[in-house]
Amino acid sequence: MLHDKSIICFGGEDWWYHHPHSKNHLMRRFARAGNKVIFVNSISMGLAPLKSKELAPRIARKLKSYAKFARTTDEGITVVSPAVIPFFGHRVLTVANRRLLTAQIAGLGRRRGLSRPILWIAIPTAVEVIGRLNESLVIYHVSDKYDANTMDHTTDPAFIRSLHERAIAAADLIFYSSRKLLAEATEGLERSYLLEQAVDFDHWSRISRGEIRVADEIAGIPGPRIGYFGAIEPWLVDQELIKQAASERPAWNWIFIGNKSRGLEIEHLPNVHFLPPVSYQDLPNYAAGFDVCVLPWNTEVPFTSYGSAIKVREYLASGKPVVISPLPEYESMSKVLRIGRSRDQFLQLVAEALREEGTAPAQARQDAVRGGTWDARAEWASDLIERALREKAEPAFSADR
Fold first, then answer.
1. What residues in the chain have per-residue pLDDT under 50?
2. What is the pTM of this model?
3. In this predicted structure, what is the pLDDT of residue 50?
4. Residue 210, phi-psi category: left (phi > 0), alpha (psi -120 to 50), beta (remainder)
5. Which residues are bridge partners to 159 per DSSP?
6. Any idea what the CATH number is for the domain that residue 364 is in?
7. What is the Cα–Cα distance from 312 to 229, expressed in whole angstroms?
8. Which residues of 227-241 are buried (b: 16+ CB within 10 A; e: fewer)?
9. Beta-ladder partners of 174
10. SS3 label, residue 237
11. How far apart are CA 74 and CA 91, in angstroms?
């Protein structure tokens, strides 16, 4: 495992997001192994559209994050929310943001004793700091199809694409979070790797061992319970599927746990229940009450189709039956996942999952993810990083010798 190094990670999400993302899991493990880590909360890719109902809530959440500025986690990670101007694409503002970020993060790094940090970037707008933090290595972690996300901000997709291309060109290592993202890559392929999502297997397998009790909020909802946790966006969740289920299968109760955006059309359906975000530590107590775990995403949205939702592996580790919308990332696991390729088929597969008997299917689901832990992913990434650092440290070959 990587040891005695300095890491500055620019995340695409905030550290405090209720459901840990891949950078959260990996940085925790690097910190536990004796590395100094600064995690920079998302500097965003711009403000949401003015007409968006989420503009004000997102500004409020970001202001709360700014108020924390720098905090230290139990593992010793410094988490910071730097001040930036949330507009991108204008030359003057780009220069201002570059100076703001560099001054804040470089100063914090000095105070925390970081030296020649590994720069781990997971958002294109952080490309401006490359070459300005005396970094020893640059890692670009491509977690999304960034220029396809036109729902959350008003920044020109062409500008986002240009930042992405600059990051690809500058990176020593490029990690892609999904197979579809890697398959469509055209530059830097010799430095590119699939960094698969993983799972904290021990945390989620407690459900199958019967070691935890079902949360009261779930126990109070009649079964059968069809459960989901994570982001709840109008464009992400297939609301037409949920409406169809409410009409055709009124006895099923759908449970959504997480941050609920405004503008949903399914809030008032009698058999759809929304619960607020739950801490990662407690989330298995809620999933333990699901009869079927689902990922009812609208994969006709181009941005969504590149997803590699961590929750799918967490569902599998629980042993519960899992029904998902079709995602290229999870086609290779179709033997342990039920993949609904139409709304009718999705509901048929949920009904089939509710009738499932025996322990063999649950065992197969858990076996499929048992070895793919975050510890294993961190070890794998560490090996690549160590090798890249050695290669950069080696003197260039001279033909005169």
1. 46-68, 398-401
2. 0.90
3. 38
4. left
5. none
6. 3.40.50.2000
7. 10
8. bbbbbbbbbbbbbeb
9. 140, 192
10. strand
11. 39
State both tokens at 228. Answer: 């989901």
The answer to the question of residue 321 being in a domain is: yes
In this structure, what token pair is assigned to residue 18? 């209720």
Task: Please give the residue range of the domain that contains residue 95.
Answer: 6-198+373-393
Helix or strand holding residue 377 (H, E)? helix 374-393
The whole-angstrom separation of Cα 95 and Cα 42 is 18
Report phi then psi at 50, rounded to 5: -60, -30
Roughly what angle, to the nearest 10 degrees, separates helices 22-32 and 374-393? Answer: 70
> What do you get for the CA distance between the two ends of the chain, in Å?
36
Q: Are residue 150 and residue 33 in the same domain, yes or no?
A: yes
Query: For strand 253-257 and strand 225-229, is the pairing parallel, antiparallel, or unpaired?
Result: parallel
Q: Domains in the chain: how many in total?
A: 2
* Triad 392, 395, 400: Cα angle to 5°: 145
Element (H, E) at 181: helix 179-183
* CA dihedral for 171, 177, 179, 184, sign (positive or negative): negative
φ, ψ for residue 78, nearest 5 deg: -90, 120
